[in-house]
Design a protein that fits this description.
The complex is a heterodimer. By secondary structure, chain A is mainly alpha-helical. Chain A has helices at 2-29, 40-44, 60-72, 87-91, 100-110, 120-125, 130-140, 146-158, 163-171, 176-181, 189-202, 218-233, 238-247, 250-260, 273-308, 313-326, 330-341, 365-403, 406-413, 418-456, 461-471, 474-502, 504-509. Chain A has three domains: 60-142, no CATH class; 145-235, no CATH class; 287-474, MetI-like fold. Chain A starts with a helix and ends in a 5-residue tail after the last helix. The chains are: A mainly alpha, B mainly alpha.
C-alpha cells in the first residue's frame, strides 16, 4: 500500500515538471517589452538569459574579468562603475598586477566609488596613485567582510546603533546581499523600513519608484529587484558557479520563481501575484469544491436510480434533460439563470453577483455564512451541472455493468432483498470508476469556474484573469495557468490515491490501477 | 488459440473483418438519434456553404430591434439581421469545430498509435505528457494566450483546444492498438514478413480507429461551446467575423433583448446537439459494449443486457477497475 502511494507520488514529479514547462512556454510566447534587452522590463522577464542552458553564467566576477581582458586588449570596454563600492574589494587588490590599460580602466571604475573609503579627499587629489589606493584599502579591509556587514545589519535592524546605518552606507553596494536578506518575513515593519531607507540611499538611481515608497510594498519590491539583479552585485561561489549553467537561465529563473512564490507583481493593481493567487484562489477552490461535492452527491443516486429503473420514464427524462443541458454552453445556461431568478427582469430569489452582502460586514458568523451560501447557490449549481451529467451517466453505466455480474445474480438467488442487493453488492462496486473520474473533473471545474465567476461577478481567479487579459498582465496569466494546472495535478493524484485506499484489490496486489 | 494451430483460417479472419467494417454505417442509419444527428450536421454544412445565397449580414440602421416582419429574428447591436448572422455564424462555428477536431484526431491517432504499438519508454513519456495536458484547463489556456500575445487571432480557440485535448483520443487509440497489436491478423501480417510500420498502418490501425471517429464530432461540439463561451464573455472575435458568441455577448449588454440570447443559444444547441448525437450513436454502432453509456432510447433496438465488460473501460486506462470484477 505504502509502496503504491510512493510510486504514485514519484510519478507526479515528471508531471509537475511538464506543467512548469507548459507555463514556461506561455512565458516565452510573451512579446519582448519595449526598450531592448537591457531594459528593466526585459530583465524582469530574464530575456537576457538563455532558455535552458547557459554555457557561461554571468555574475559580477565574470563581468569584471571580461572587461579587464577587453581593456587590456584595447577594445572598448563596458562601464561598470554603477555597480558601486562592491568593486573596491574586487579591484583594488588586483590593481598592481594589471597591465597598464586595464589598470587605467579599473581606476576609472573605482574613482566614482571612492567616496565609500574614508580618505576620499586624499584620493581626489591623486586618483592615479596606486599605493595610496592600496594603503587606504588596507586600512578598511576588515570592513569589507560579510561577517562585519551581517553584524552591522543586525544592529541596524534592532535600532540600537545610530552608526550602523552610516557605516552600511559607507560600504555601498557591498552591503546589498545582507541588507536584502534582512528583509525577510520575520522582520517587523519598523525594521524593514530602516533597512529600506538604507537600501534607497545606496542605490539612488535604480528606476522603479516603488523601491523608494514608504508603504508596505517596498520590501517586496526590493526582494523582487534583488532576485533579478543579484548577479550584477555578487561573485558566485564555487557551488553557484557549478549549478549556474542550469539556474542562470530563463527556465531556471521561472522554476525559482515558482518554488519561492516570487511571481512578480500584477500589472492590474501592482499587488504581488502570489498573494493575489492565494486570496482569489481560495474563492475559486471553494466554488469548485462545492460544485464537485454537489455533482458527486447528486450524480451517484441519480445514476444508480436511472440504471435500476432502466428504460423507465425518469430514466428517459433525465437522459434527455442531461443531453440538452450538456449541449448548451454553461455561460448561456448561467445567463438564463441570472435573468430568471437573480433580479430584474426575472424573480429576485438570489443575489445577482458578488460573494457577500456589504450590510452584513460586522454580523456574527452564522448569518454571514448563510449569506455566503445564498450568494454561492446559483454559481455552484451552474458549475456543478455539467459534471453532474457526466458523472451520473458513468454511474449509470457502472451500475448496469455490475448488475449483470454473477455475484449479483447469486445474491438475488439466495434471496437478498433487492434494495440490499443494490446497496451492498452493486453500489459499492459501481462507485470506484466514478470516484476515479471525479479526479478528472478538477481541471474542467477550474476552467468552467472562470466563466461562472465572470458571469456572477465573483472575485475569484477567473474574474481576475479576464481583467488580466485586458491589461495584458503576463505575470498573472502565466502564474494562474501554472497554479490551475498544479491544482489539477493534485486533484488527479488525490483521486487516484483515494481509489487505491478504498479498493482492496490495489491494496492486495500493490500495483497501481492502470 | 494460436494462429499456427489453425492453418488456412486467415481468409476467414479477413472476411470477418470486412463484414464488421461494412456494417457500421448500416447499423448507424437504423437508429433515429443517429439520423437526427447526421441530418443536423449535414444541414449545418449546407447552411455554411449556401450562406451568401441565403442572407446578408450587412448592418442596417435599426440597432437591437425586436423580431418583426422585416427582421424575423430581430437585429443585433450593429443593426445586422440576427437570422442572417445565425446563418453566417455556422461558418465560424464549423471552422472552429473542424480545425480543432482535425488536430485532435490527427495528433491523438498518431501519438496514441505509436505509443500503444511500440510501448516502452516512448509510451511512458507520452503517458506523462497526456497527464500534463489533462491538467491544463482549456479556457484558462486560451485566455492566457490571448492576454500574453495581445492578439485575438482567428481560430486561436480551436487551435488551443486541439493542441490540449487530443489526449482522450490518444488514450483510447493506444488501448485499441495495444489490443489489436496481438490479434490474429496482426500476428499473421507479421508472419507474412511485413515490417512493424506496415503492420501498424495497414493491419492494426484500421481496426483501432473507431474511437477517433467517435471523438471527432464530439470534439467539434466541445470546441464550438468553448469558443462561444469565451466570445460571450467579451473575449471578442476578430473584427469582421460573424459568430454566434458575439451575438450572445450583445445579449449581455442589452438585457431586454431576449432575441439576442435565445436564438443564437438555440443555434448553438442545434449544432452541438447534432455533433453529440452523431458522435454518441457512432460510438454505439462501433462498440456495443459501451451502449449502456448512451441514451436509453438506444437500448430499445437491442433488448438484451450489455455484456459484462471484459476488455477495456470506456475512457481509456484511467477508468481502471470495472474489468477486474468479473
Amino acid at each position: 500500500m505504502l509502496r503504491l502511494i510512493l510510486r504514485r507520488l514519484l510519478v507526479v514529479a515528471p508531471t509537475l515538471v511538464g506543467v512548469t514547462l507548459v507555463s514556461f512556454a506561455l512565458l516565452v510566447l510573451a512579446p519582448p517589452p519595449e526598450g531592448g534587452l537591457a531594459s528593466e522590463a526585459s530583465r524582469a522577464l530574464f530575456l537576457d538569459l538563455p532558455l535552458f542552458v547557459s554555457a557561461h553564467p554571468r555574475d559580477l566576477g565574470r563581468d569584471i574579468d571580461d572587461a579587464l581582458a577587453s581593456a587590456a586588449a584595447g577594445r572598448s570596454t563596458a562601464d561598470l562603475s554603477a555597480r558601486g563600492a562592491v568593486l573596491v574589494p574586487l579591484l583594488v587588490p588586483r590593481l598592481g598586477s594589471l597591465p597598464t590599460r586595464a589598470q587605467r580602466w579599473a581606476l576609472d571604475q573605482l574613482t566614482p566609488n571612492a567616496g565609500s573609503l574614508a580618505s576620499a579627499v586624499e584620493l581626489a587629489d591623486a586618483p592615479d596613485d596606486l599605493t595610496l589606493w592600496s594603503d587606504i584599502y588596507e586600512e578598511r579591509k576588515l570592513d569589507f567582510r560579510p561577517n562585519h556587514v551581517r553584524r552591522l545589519v543586525r544592529r541596524l535592524r534592532s535600532g540600537s546603533s545610530r552608526h550602523a546605518a552610516d557605516q552600511l552606507r559607507s560600504l555601498g553596494t557591498f552591503a546589498l546581499p545582507e541588507l536584502v536578506s534582512a528583509l525577510d518575513d520575520e522582520a517587523t515593519a519598523d525594521e524593514q523600513q530602516r533597512v529600506v531607507a538604507v537600501l534607497a540611499d545606496l542605490l539612488p538611481d535604480v528606476p522603479p519608484a516603488r523601491l523608494r515608497s514608504a508603504d508596505s510594498r517596498a520590501p517586496e519590491a526590493w526582494r523582487e529587484w534583488w532576485f533579478v539583479h543579484r548577479p550584477d552585485y555578487i561573485v558566485f561561489d564555487r557551488f553557484e558557479r557549478a549549478v549556474g549553467g542550469v539556474t542562470e537561465t530563463r527556465y531556471g529563473k521561472w522554476l525559482a520563481r515558482l518554488a519561492t512564490l516570487r511571481l512578480g507583481t500584477s500589472a492590474v493593481d501592482g499587488e504581488a501575484v502570489a498573494g493575489k493567487l492565494a486570496s482569489r484562489g481560495a474563492v475559486t477552490i471553494t466554488l469548485a469544491t462545492l460544485a464537485a461535492i454537489v455533482a458527486f452527491l447528486f450524480a451517484v443516486p441519480l445514476g444508480t436510480f436511472t440504471a435500476v429503473r432502466r428504460g423507465g420514464v425518469l430514466d428517459r427524462f433525465v437522459a434527455i434533460l442531461g443531453f440538452v443541458l450538456y449541449s448548451l454552453p454553461v455561460v448561456w445556461v448561467g445567463a438564463l439563470v441570472l435573468r430568471a431568478v437573480c433580479g430584474a427582469p426575472g424573480l429576485a430569489l438570489f443575489p445577482s453577483g458578488g460573494l457577500s452582502d456589504p450590510s452584513l460586514a460586522g454580523a456574527p458568523l452564522v448569518p454571514r455564512l448563510l449569506d455566503l451560501a445564498w450568494h454561492l447557490a446559483m454559481p455552484v449549481v451552474c458549475l456543478a451541472y455539467p459534471s453532474l451529467i457526466v458523472l451520473s451517466r458513468h454511474q449509470r453505466s457502472a451500475v448496469l455493468n455490475v448488475v449483470g455480474t454473477d455475484y449479483v445474480r447469486t445474491a438475488r438467488a439466495k434471496g437478498v432483498p433487492e434494495h440490499l442487493v443494490i446497496r451492498h453488492h452493486v453500489l459499492r462496486n459501481a462507485l470506484l470508476p466514478v470516484v476515479t473520474l471525479a479526479g478528472l473533473e478538477v481541471p474542467l471545474l477550474v476552467g468552467t469556474s472562470v466563466l461562472v465567476e465572470e458571469l456572477f461577478a465573483i472575485p475569484g481567479l477567473g474574474r481576475e484573469t479576464v481583467a488580466a487579459v485586458a491589461a495584458r498582465d503576463v505575470s498573472w496569466l502565466v502564474a494562474v495557468t501554472a497554479a490551475a494546472a498544479i491544482v489539477s495535478v493534485v486533484g488527479l493524484l488525490l483521486g487516484d490515491l483515494f481509489v487505491a485506499l478504498v479498493d482492496p484489490r490495489t491494496r492486495r496486489s500493490g500495483g497501481a490501477p492502470r | 488459440m494460436k494462429l499456427s494451430e489453425r492453418p488456412g483460417q486467415i481468409a476467414v479472419i479477413v472476411r470477418e473483418r470486412v463484414r464488421q467494417r461494412a456494417g457500421i454505417l448500416r447499423v448507424l442509419w437504423r437508429t433515429r438519434r443517429a439520423r437526427l444527428g447526421l441530418v443536423g450536421m449535414l444541414s449545418l454544412f449546407a447552411l455554411a456553404a449556401l450562406a451568401d445565397l441565403l442572407a446578408s449580414p450587412a448592418p442596417s440602421s435599426v440597432l437591437v430591434a425586436a423580431p418583426s416582419v422585416e427582421h424575423w429574428l430581430g437585429t443585433d447591436v450593429l443593426g445586422r439581421d440576427v437570422l442572417a448572422c445565425l446563418i453566417h455564424g455556422t461558418r465560424a462555428a464549423l471552422a472552429v469545430g473542424l480545425v480543432s477536431a482535425t488536430i485532435v484526431v490527427f495528433v491523438g491517432v498518431a501519438l496514441g498509435a505509436v505509443s500503444g504499438f511500440y510501448g516502452g519508454r516512448l509510451d511512458t513519456f507520452l503517458t506523462r505528457m497526456i497527464e500534463v495536458l489533462l491538467s491544463v484547463p482549456t479556457i484558462l489556456a486560451v485566455l492566457a494566450l490571448r492576454g500574453i500575445t495581445g492578439d485575438t487571432r482567428l481560430l486561436d480557440v480551436a487551435i488551443v483546444f486541439g493542441v490540449l485535448r487530443w489526449t482522450d483520443v490518444a488514450r483510447m487509440i493506444r488501448a485499441e492498438v495495444m489490443r489489436a497489436r496481438n490479434s490474429d491478423w496482426a500476428v499473421a501480417a507479421h508472419a507474412l514478413g511485413l515490417s512493424p510500420l506496415q503492420v501498424l498502418s495497414r493491419h492494426v490501425l484500421p481496426d483501432a480507429l473507431s474511437p477517433a471517429l467517435v471523438a471527432a464530432p464530439i470534439a467539434m461540439g466541445a470546441a464550438i461551446v468553448v469558443d462561444a463561451s469565451l466570445a460571450m464573455l467579451g473575449a471578442a472575435e476578430p473584427a469582421g467575423v460573424v459568430t454566434w458568441g458575439a451575438l450572445l455577448a450583445g445579449a449581455r449588454l442589452h438585457r431586454d433583448a431576449w432575441w439576442l440570447a435565445v436564438f443564437p443559444g438555440f443555434a448553438l444547441f442545434v449544432a452541438v446537439a447534432s455533433f453529440n448525437l452523431a458522435g454518441e450513436s457512432l460510438r454505439d454502432a462501433l462498440d456495443p459494449q459501451l451502449r449502456s453509456l448512451a441514451l436509453p432510447g438506444a437500448d430499445k433496438r437491442t433488448p438484451e443486457k450489455p455484456a459484462p465488460r471484459t476488455t477495456r473501460p470506456p475512457r481509456g486506462e484511467r477508468e481502471p477497475t470495472g474489468e477486474h470484477l468479473q
